[in-house]
């Protein structure tokens, strides 16, 4: 039971480069989320997706692009990385909202630690 | 400003002590979740509270949802070093698909 996985776990890249973080879940959850976690800010939502081909901006979407062509995958791309995007990135998934308030429960991947030099 | 404010931000106590951490908002939530996160790992769900005034117990942890569904508290009885971690609250608002997290309370329990 793989659950939700992220790759790579660690990444160092240079300013201006494009980098893609991968997220894969095996539960067929409808919703998927990308967060960044920084000291003093907690978890901040970047983008989320309610289903394949449906994505929406969260609190801090600038500089990021997402896609969801398949239910199980939700890649996050930094088109031109900046030092301010150095962070730990978490992917999460949750069930269809039609399943009631407990559908808001999220299941997180192990995170990707990204450093932009 | 955070939609969900957690307090205290840091808490360091001795093993055996009791503690309470808080999660407050001016918004109404259809449900609130509490998560615990250890270093190098993703948050792990502890509990979901749904009904205003609801109290849920998970061994030595007691979670309460405010009557107006705007706030929540987590009380730990007789804390143990294994309780050390970052405690996060998160909420889903009615008619809103996104999720918001508080900044967390970092708890250290010393043996």
Mean pLDDT of chain B: 92
Q: What is the number of helical segments of chain B per DSSP (H or I, 4+ residues)?
A: 0
SS elements, strand count of chain B:
11
Q: Unreliable runs of chain A, pLDDT <50, ≥5 residues? A: none
Strand content of chain B: over 45%
Low-pLDDT residue spans of chain B? none
What's the alpha carbon Rg of chain B, rounded to whole Å? 13 Å
Description:
The complex is a heterodimer of chains A (117) and B (111). Chain A has no helices and eleven strands. By secondary structure, chain A is mostly beta strands. In chain A, the strands form two sheets. In chain A, strands 2, 4, 5, 6, 9, 10 and 11 form a seven-stranded mixed β-sheet that branches. A four-stranded antiparallel β-sheet of chain A has the order 1-3-8-7, with no helix packed on it. Chain A starts with a strand and ends with a strand. The mean pLDDT of chain A is 92. Chain B is mainly beta and 111 residues long. The model of chain B has no long low-confidence stretch (mean pLDDT 92). Classes of the chains: A mainly beta (117), B mainly beta (111). At the A-B interface, strand 4, strand 5, strand 9 and strand 10 of A face strand 4, strand 5, strand 9 and strand 10 of B.
């Amino acid at each position: 039971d793989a659950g939700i996985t992220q790759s790579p776990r660690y990444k160092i890249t240079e300013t201006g480069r494009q980098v893609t973080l991968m997220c894969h879940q095996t539960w067929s959850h409808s919703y998927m989320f990308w967060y960044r976690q920084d000291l003093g800010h907690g978890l901040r939502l970047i983008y989320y997706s309610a289903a394949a081909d449906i994505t929406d901006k969260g609190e801090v979407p600038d500089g990021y692009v997402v896609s969801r062509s398949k239910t199980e995958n939700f890649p996050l791309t930094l088109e031109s990385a900046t030092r301010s995007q150095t962070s730990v990135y978490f992917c999460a998934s949750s069930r269809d909202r039609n399943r009631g308030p407990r559908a808001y429960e999220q299941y997180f991947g192990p995170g990707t630690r990204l450093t932009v030099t | 400003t955070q939609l969900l404010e957690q307090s205290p931000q840091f808490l360091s106590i001795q093993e055996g002590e009791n503690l309470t951490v808080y999660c407050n908002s001016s918004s109404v939530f259809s449900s609130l979740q509490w998560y615990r996160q250890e270093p190098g790992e993703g948050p792990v769900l502890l509990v979901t509270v749904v009904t205003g005034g609801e109290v849920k117990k998970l061994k030595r942890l007691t979670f309460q949802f405010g009557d107006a569904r705007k706030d929540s508290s987590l009380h730990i009885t007789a804390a143990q070093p294994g309780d050390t971690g970052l405690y996060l609250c998160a909420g889903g608002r009615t008619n809103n698909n996104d999720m918001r997290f508080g900044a967390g309370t970092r708890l250290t329990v010393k043996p």
